[in-house]
Design a protein that fits this description.
Blueprint (H helix, E strand, L loop, with lengths): L2 H9 L9 H7 L9 H12 L4 E2 L3 H9 L4 E2 L1 H10 L5 H13 L6 H10 L14
Parallel strand pairs: 1-2
Helix pairs in contact: 2-3
């Protein structure tokens, strides 16, 4: 990661958090079904410290909606980077194209809206409801 991007990430308030043993124990409550211990710990932290959770995993997003925990995914991150002018739009469009080529599933309506808002050329003729 470039020093420029790292500096911008820190300026946006994103930080690495040291995990306590007590958090791990408390997070065990959510370590069930499709959730890994890491998922459970992230959810526990976001819920108990009123933080935003970043994930693209549908079960974890659904749990956040049920428990009224703020949650966003990849497209939101890209949108924030564009709005804050951290990177140029052409670079972000390249990111989206790579994600699409890699088969990363993204909700088509939001993807189209993001591309049109940012005036990015994006192929929208895809056979599935998700990219």
């Amino acid at each position: 990661m470039s020093l420029f991007l790292l500096t911008k990430i820190r300026a946006a308030g994103i930080q690495q958090i040291a995990v306590s043993r007590e958090w791990v124990q408390s997070a065990q409550l959510y370590h069930r079904g499709p959730f890994s211990l890491q998922d459970a710990l992230c959810f526990y932290y976001a819920k108990n410290f009123n933080r935003l959770l970043l994930t693209n995993e549908k079960p974890l997003r659904n749990l956040c909606y049920q428990e009224q925990v703020s949650v966003h995914g990849t497209l939101w991150i890209i949108q924030q980077i564009d709005q804050r002018r951290i990177l140029i739009s052409a670079e972000l469009c390249k990111w989206l194209s790579i994600l699409v080529q890699k088969g990363i599933r993204m909700p088509k309506p939001e993807l189209i809206e993001l591309a049109s808002t940012a005036n990015w050329p994006l192929e929208t003729n895809h056979p599935s409801p998700h990219y």
